[in-house]
Amino acid sequence: SATNDQGVATAQLTTGNPRPAGGKAVVTARTIGDSGTVVAQNDTIVFSGATTILSPIVGFSVPDSGSSTLSNITYEVQDQFGNPLEGGSTIRVSMRGDAASVLTLEGDIDVTIPDTRDTKYTDFSIKVSKKQKGPPGGEVFLRIEVTSPNNATATPEFKEIRGVVSAVGGGGGG
Predict the structure, then answer these.
(1) pTM recorded for the entire structure
(2) Which end of the chain has fewer beta carbons closer than 10 Å to its terminal beta carbon, N or C?
(3) How far apart are the C-alpha atoms of 125 and 148, rounded to whole Å?
């Protein structure tokens, strides 16, 4: 590729199947510098794959304390290789159901993924607490919704985790 007036060259990377194992590949750029010296630079490129939402829990309960917190409901959002999603992908966490109006969500509930290879952008957590003692109680659903170019369709991917909110006793002072 030819250089511009500042000596910078650009090239287009065209890819095809098969994709690299683990979704990562090392690209090397080489040129001949002053005095015929070879100048080379390597960089790792992530070919981010389909959105995956994982959670180690299948359900949760919130006691009727008025101040109790169920901390660290953890979840992961990544591609099928464990890599972060494409930069600009968004994660929204919400709650629906009988007792959703008396619950507070804190933590990673509204996230925009940066353009990164750092896998710390695959691990997230939230805290759920009940704002008041007593009713209402009942079934709730924690919804993790992901909007990303990684999704197989234009529709956001989502996962729901069922929870139960107690409406009488069970939590201690609050």
Answers:
(1) 0.79
(2) N
(3) 19
